[in-house]
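To assess whether the prediction recovers the assembly geometry, we first specified each molecular entity separately, as shown.
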Amino acid sequence: MDKATGIHDMGGTEGWGPAPVPRPDEPVFAERWQARAFALALLSMRLSGTNLNAFRHAMNRLDRRDYLDDGYYGRWLHGAENLLLDSSIIAPGTVEARAANLSGASAEEPAPPEPNRPDYAPAAAGSLREVSSEPRFAVGSAVRARTFDPPGHTRLPRYVMGHTGAVVIVQPAQVLPDTNAHFQGENPQWVYTVRFASAELFGPAAEPFALNVDLCEDYLEEAP
Amino acid sequence: MTDERVPIELRVEALEQLLVERGLVDSAVMDKYIAMYETDVGPLNGARVVARAWTDPGYRDRLLADGTAAAAELGYKGPQGEHIVVLENTPDVHNVVVCTLCSCYPWPLLGLPPSWYKDPAYRSRMVREPRVVLAEMGLRLPDDVEIRVWDSSSEVRYFVLPTRPDGTEGLSEEQLVPLVTRDAMVGVAQVTT
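The predicted structure of the complete assembly is given in tokenized form:
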């Protein structure tokens, strides 16, 4: 199982500088290649026989350059390429060779490989699922976010790991990204919006505010 | 040291060409997806929801109780809108939405996210010092306003119902729509007249 690099898990990290001032007239796509990358990424999920969780993980595996240096839609393109490589829709080196040829070189392009899509079919459209179990936690329950080094994909942000909060909303059950991203089953389960005090997360000097985050049942344990 | 990275524009062109050549991707389908989010689905949808909620108390109640259904009443549903939760801003409580792990955003109501929403500075700091970040973005909140930050880490999509500005009592729903900004519906601005 490919680990995430962790670069995507930005909550609470420092060193990124000031927040950008919004521009009201910003175009949806500043450049045409961004629009093409957006559409290619959406189509690549279907083409590779994967899913949204796998696509997110395909981006979370990128290194600093591919995640940051080509911008947001560059990240989507690199993620889409990862999905297409994983499912053997394209061979390694193909995009680079074609790009060289587009620039006037005469590079040999690898032959298209035999596709090897994952053995995966969703139980239903989307990510919401009906489950027969009762929610383990209720509104008001004190819960603690587990601490673990994820072997692959997860949607448990590091900045809440090990911290205690209270359930404020019991959300509809959803597929578990941790297994669904790797085609190891949907494991549908309840999701809880958990509220943490900022001081619990960042210490007594933290700016006072309430942090709400959605966490799968597997990410939580009863508060000690 | 040479940088042998393929420029991203070229990379995108190469991949599209490769997939189109093999009949795996249809450029016209790509055009359709792009046009949908460049012209059809954008923050005007959300603005219509807000203006309706401000002028129709029954709709406001339905919106707060079940955002997904209330958005669908106006025809707004689709990808990244499976389960919409609406957060109402009041003079005492200010809600603001972020996605620290990627860029989750309620597409059917707001379209694709703006660049500031995807910026590492916004993603990292909104969950750590929201009052400072909001001020940097131009929104200074009084000290006694409680800030609630919502990190979109699941498939739930959050949408902020901004406070209706004073002095707009005489305006119709249609007149209110153009006042409502994208930034106010994420929670980094307030609606002003």
